[in-house]
Amino acid sequence: MYGITLYGTIDVGVSYQSHGSAFSDAAATNVNNFLIKASNKPNTSLASNGMSISTIGIKGREPLGAGWWGIFQLDTGFLPASMTLIDGPRSLAVNNGVPLAQQKSWGDSSRAGQALNGRAFVGVESPGYGTLTFGRQSTLLNDEVCKYDPLSCSLAFSYVGFFGSTAGTGDTQDRALDGTLKYTVTNGIFHGGAMYQFGNARELSSSRGTAYQVDMGITQGPWSVNAVLAHKNDAILFGTLSAAQVAALYTPGSSTYGLPVDKALPGTVSDNTSYTFLGEYNAGRAKFFGAYEHIRYVNPSSPLPVGSQTIGGYFVVPNNDAFPRPKIFEVAWVGMRYALTPSLDAFAVYYRAMQSSYAKVSCSDSSSAQCSGHYDALSLVLDQHFGRFFDVYGGVQWSKVYDGMANGYLQRASFDPTVGVRVVF
């Protein structure tokens, strides 16, 4: 097939959280489907993007001759429940200086209100030589995590979809990267790829720091396995400014004086390295999945100065010394997808995230965010398809946080059902 194609997805529904936070017109689902620090009281609300990101875009494929094709893709993600573009950093910035119990739903994201907050790349492809693209695009790690997640990185039901650190080499912003050269190829039972981000070339990328990834996999009969090595320099995890930090923005002599309160965010800066192993067994009506990722965070080799501007034009108030010792973060999941009928699928997945103690003196309670801890999530979902372009879904996930990972949380567990409809064109 060739030519230019207009495509899109609209995904909207209703979500309930036993411990949630208020509706946001910027967060990727409008609500916090999983337990976060600000989750506090029962909340029922319209919600977006429960099963997949609502997107509008165009893509093209034109013959170049000698078996080569030129390709491009441009798209953006939006929130049908609020009719706004997804802007994860803005969902945090509106909570700057707001007490935790009063904050609206929030979540960091690589989608930061840009006109093209999804993909924006051009490239060439050949059946024999593979595909080479350049621009803003999904990373190899994100591609494989979503492929081997039974729920395909659903934001309402998948831990690795809602918390993008797994697919982002430790930080959600890095699931998609600007200024990236990406190569993928399939040859018989083997498939793989490599990518590099020119993150320090400001004319090529709005993201700080370089990155690289290598992906290798085999598909043989009902089995498919993959391994991904990924590294990112100057990864940034955004949070919200405290009341004292907001006051400093207006205080002459402060290192942050003059930064705009609606564009300034505290950022934990680190150099991250991960390795990930993923597998699938296709038994026909049932497909079984499993994966494990190991992420190592260390203080950045190139600390960011105060006021560094990054994705979406946001300014960083950096913490370059967050890790007295390397932090080890591990994520694993097992699950299945079962075709109850040709048009009705059932999903069941268990996720666990675990962090080591990285405090100077090891600890294993909730007294500090640097103590060891873990986070559990269990999801059950039904998805009924009505032809190729329309489906209705419903499900529930339960999440609970323990020890160091629970530090600062208002609640420790949440029960979160969601129902929705999705239209694809």
From TrEMBL:
Keywords of the record: Cell outer membrane, Ion transport, Membrane, Porin, Signal, Transmembrane, Transmembrane beta strand, Transport
Main location: membrane
Residues in Porin domain copies: 4-297
Membrane topology (UniProt): Multi-pass membrane protein
Record SUPFAM superfamilies: Porins
InterPro entries, per the entry: Gram-neg_bact_OMP, Gram_neg_porin_domain, Porin_dom_sf
Subcellular locations according to the entry: Cell outer membrane
Quaternary assembly: Homotrimer.
Protein name: Porin domain-containing protein
Organism: Dyella nitratireducens
